[in-house]
Write a structure and sequence with these properties.
Blueprint lengths: L10 E5 L4 E4 H6 L9 H4 L6 H8 L2 H8 L6 H16 L1
Antiparallel strand pairs: 1-2
This protein binds iron/sulfur cluster.
């Protein structure tokens, strides 16, 4: 399988901002639909992150992912909570 969803089922044992396990789907969408800024650090042992980004995102989206929109840990946690609330209800 190719495309953005190809690694969605993979698990990262501990997301530093959230403090628990997450799947790749979370990591590739958490940044307003774009990958988390930490993806190259967290996932480099399990996959070729630069290749994944090149194959699935525009240069502008990659720039947004890696260079701008860097969020603090607290902002990421609050966003995850809001997202969970919205999904629950
Ligand atoms: S890439 Fe981001 S969301 Fe995914 S485990 Fe790392 S810090 Fe958490």
């Amino acid at each position: 399988m190719a495309g953005k969803e190809q690694y969605d089922e993979l698990k990262h044992y501990r997301c530093p901002p959230l403090g628990g396990p997450v799947d790749f789907r979370h990591c590739r969408t958490v940044n307003e639909g774009l990958p988390c800024t930490k993806m190259p650090v967290c996932w480099s042992r399990k996959m070729d992150v630069p290749e994944f980004l090149r194959e699935n995102y525009t240069e502008y989206e990659i720039w947004q992912t890696l260079a701008v929109g860097r969020k603090t840990r607290l902002e990421t946690v609050f966003e995850a909570i809001e997202k969970a609330k919205n999904n629950a209800g």
